Amino acid sequence: MATVTVGTARVHYDIEGAGAGPALLLVHGTGAGGAVLTWGQVGPRFAGDRRVITLDLSGADRTVDDGGPLSVEMLAAQVIAVIEDAGTGPVDLLGFSMGAPVSAAVAALRPDLVERLVLVAGWAYTDGDEYMRNLFTLWQRLGGSDPEGFGRSVTMTGFSRGFLNGIGREGVEALVPNLPPTPGTLRHVALDLAVDIRALLPRITARTLVVGGTQDITVPVENSRELHAAIAGSAYAEIDAGHVMFFEKEDEFVKTVTGFLGS
Question: Is the CATH number 3.40.50.1820 carried by domain 2-126+197-261?
Answer without folding.
Answer: yes
